[in-house]
Amino acid sequence: MPPIASLKRNPSAALLAVQLLGFLLYPLMEASPRSRAFFGVSGLVVLGVALGVVRRSPWLTWIGSLLALPVVILSVASAIAPRPEFVVWTAALEAVFYFYATGSLIAYMWQDWVATTDELFAAGATFTLLAWALAKVVIRAPIDRPRSAN
User: Fold this and answer.
1) What's the CA gap between 131 and 78, in Å, rounded?
2) How far apart (Å, rounded) are the C-alpha atoms in residues 64 and 80?
3) Angle between helices 117-137 and 84-109 (to 10 degrees)
4) What is the average pLDDT value for the chain, to the nearest integer?
5) Fewer CB atoms near the end CB (10 Å): N or C, the chain?
């Protein structure tokens, strides 16, 4: 089966591949602002692929689109005029979207009693979507923050 036809039959495999690529490339991209911006764009690709996969589930596609649209707008606004508020709101909305996509993929996998190849890929994609969502929720303290004098 040609790769394109295989991905059409198994869109969860594409989502899982894009996510795993993001996890592998992240350590290489955190060093410079340009690299972090590229990683942000790749996060939007994950968002788009996840939205495409969510369309196959019983949950309403327009909810996913409604959640994804502000993330895209805030990501563009943050790239044009970097402000801490944009980063916080973008991360919060991305987390909500990834939790929604996680629930949607779980609903997709529970639709029937037969485990298809796409549902097996969906299980892996669900796990990584949950990891992305939790990563957006966790707030990290800056490394160079001065320690208290206690």
Assistant:
1) 23
2) 25
3) 150
4) 78
5) C
Instruction: Using alpha carbons, list the distances in angstroms from residue 105 to 16, 114, 127, 148.
Output: 12, 15, 10, 45
**Contact yes or no for 71/106 (Cβ under 8 A):** no
- Cα distance between residue 9 and residue 18, in whole Å: 16
Say which residue the tokens 């779980």 belong to: 106
Residue pair 126/102 in contact by the 8 Å Cβ criterion: yes
- The whole-angstrom separation of Cα 138 and Cα 60 is 28
pLDDT at 107 > cutoff 80: yes
Q: Is the pTM of this model over 0.85?
A: no
CB-based contact 48:65 (threshold 8 Å): no
> Which residue type, as a one-letter code, is found at position 97?
F
With CA atoms as reference, report the closest residue to 13 among 94, 128, 95. Answer: 128
